[in-house]
Design goal:
The chain has 515 residues and is of the alpha/beta class. It is built from 15 helices and 25 strands. Strands 2-1-10-9-11-12-13-14-15 form a 9-stranded mixed β-sheet, sandwiched between helices. A hairpin with a 5-residue loop joins strand 19 and strand 20. Helix 7 packs across helix 8 and helix 13 packs across helix 14.
């Protein structure tokens, strides 16, 4: 067993780390595709990564340039993202569910002259660019990666030059309150994001993760791809999250951990309860990992009871290369309802002046460390507003910290519902709704009200064949959290709007139900 995320195994760049792991692990599998007989060792990955960089060179892509990637998850997609980092390009993530106007904005704002597409995304990107389509060179993913047989792979004409820039990733926030901001990460911050995950979860070269989140999201990029790289472990890559094949993928590929978001945990739980699914044959599975949004304690407990799999709640941001908090592995203590303690960075609860608050008092969660973003691209004002002069990133999340350093998230500064002068955290309403067995998805939000300033409403997705009514759920909430905080109206929807990570977007939900 090798803790390969030691300082000796992690280089100063992703290229250096790939080289070190390829030399150290040789034939050990790194990337594994589901449904196909395809897996590549660290050494084979390096060889294929070199071939992709050679192809990019031949296409006239210059190191340091932003290169968009717009494709679904695959083993070839993972290799191509790693090749962008290895070759010294600025990998620019394109969110495939963001809509045409956002895709057009991102490519224009990033000044990306090249974008790598697959068969499914080419039409979408072309339509998004419109009249500008001729200004952006579209490179085909299959053409970049269709080198069959290790003996026939092309290589770089010479050793890769020194990295043109320390910057490695440009990833845009979801933009729920306006135009998305371009988060710039360096090679160092990306590697630190992976290292923090590996340390928190005790990953070693014996581990094998399952990646079901998209690579255009920071969770999959750093938690799955980077953490597996720095720990010398393996990563299984299905094309997408599938409730019906989730446990089979873990069983067939002997996965020891997985990373999901709360909505996916809810889907897996309800599918099992309605169709009798279980995690039999997955005894090798050490833990599951939840991130992106707070996990309801009721759903958390029900999932663990149903599947007998511990779920480690965590917290991360695009701006922090994913993870900032995690519950520790045994013998450390897990606290249900908390995303845990700091690993690899500092966390404090700050007041209005960003000074640390006493333990137990509510304030804004602030984070500082080498995993924090370099800047927001072309937006010095946003960078200054987000990062204090002494390096604390203001997350926008409200929380409190207990005496043992565990953080409890209480809400978002911009999402608080102010009813009659009293603050109501939407999460408290969400948890009351999730405690009903028929609720799969739930999100509360504030609506303007003449009498109280705002009133509480919520969007809910119910399990199939449920006969529960809105009045039933409102009565359920009144019992859980009282009449004042309970929703005044509940909207049943087939699905709630979500961002690329699966996080429910309250602002879009409020706009949707008010149309």
């Amino acid at each position: 067993m090798n803790n390969a995320f030691s300082n000796e195994a992690i280089g100063c760049s992703v290229r250096d780390t790939i080289d070190r792991q390829a030399d150290a692990h040789g034939k050990k599998p790194y990337l594994i595709a589901t449904g196909q007989d395809r897996s590549y060792s660290f050494a084979e990955c390096r060889q294929r990564i070199n071939a992709i960089v050679s192809c990019l060179e031949a296409e006239g892509v210059r190191p340091g340039e932003p290169v968009g990637y717009a494709f679904s998850n695959s083993i070839d997609g993972a290799l191509t993202i790693l090749a962008l980092l290895y070759g010294g390009y600025l990998a620019t993530a394109i969110n495939l569910v963001a809509g045409e106007s956002t895709i057009e904005y991102v490519l224009g704002h990033a000044e990306a002259g090249h974008v790598i597409v697959d068969g499914d995304s080419r039409g979408m990107v072309t339509a998004a660019l419109g009249a500008r389509a001729g200004e952006v060179s579209m490179l085909d993913l299959d053409a970049l990666t269709s080198h069959h047989g290790a003996d026939h792979l092309p290589g770089l004409s010479s050793a890769p030059p020194a990295l043109a820039s320390a910057d490695g990733l440009l990833m845009y926030t979801s933009g729920t309150t306006g135009r998305p901001k371009g988060v710039v990460h360096t090679h160092e911050s990306l590697l630190c994001g992976g290292r923090n995950t590996a340390i928190a979860h005790g990953l070693t070269d014996l581990d094998r993760g399952l990646c079901v989140l998209p690579f255009y999201h920071i969770n999959a990029f750093c938690v799955s791809l980077m953490a597996s790289l720095v720990s010398g472990s393996s990563l299984v890559i299905p094309p997408k999250f599938s409730v019906s094949s989730f446990w089979a993928s873990i069983r067939d590929h002997q996965c020891t951990w997985f990373s999901v978001v709360p909505t996916q945990i809810s889907y897996l739980l309800h599918q099992a309860e309605n169709q009798g699914g279980n995690a039999s044959g997955c005894e090798h599975l050490r833990f599951g990992r939840s991130a992106s949004a707070p996990l309801s304690p009721e759903v958390h407990a029900a999932f663990e009871k149903r599947f007998n799999v511990p779920v480690i709640e965590t917290m991360g941001l695009t701006e922090t290369a994913a993870q900032i908090l995690s519950n520790p592995q045994p013998p450390g203590i897990r606290k249900i309802g908390s995303p845990g303690i700091a690993f690899g960075n500092e966390i404090i609860i700050g007041g209005q002046d960003q000074q640390e608050m006493p333990r137990g008092e509510e304030g804004e969660i602030l984070v500082r460390g080498p995993n924090v973003l370099k800047c927001y691209l072309k937006n010095e004002q946003a960078t200054r507003e987000a990062v204090t002069p002494d390096g604390w990133l203001k997350t926008g999340d409200l929380g409190r910290m207990d005496e043992e350093g565990y953080v409890f998230v209480t809400g978002r500064l911009k999402e608080l519902i102010i009813k009659g002068g009293e603050n109501i955290a939407p999460r408290e309403v969400d948890e009351a709704l999730y405690s009903h067995p028929d609720v799969i998805e739930a999100a509360a939000f504030g609506v303007a009200c003449e009498n109280y300033g705002q009133r509480v409403e919520a969007g809910v997705k119910l399990s199939e064949h449920s006969v529960v009514r809105p009045d039933d759920l409102m009565a359920h909430c009144r019992k859980q959290i009282g009449h004042f905080k309970a929703p005044d109206q509940i909207h049943f929807l087939p699905d709630l709007p979500k961002g690329p990570s699966g996080k429910i977007q309250r602002k879009k939900l409020a706009e949707l139900v008010r149309k």
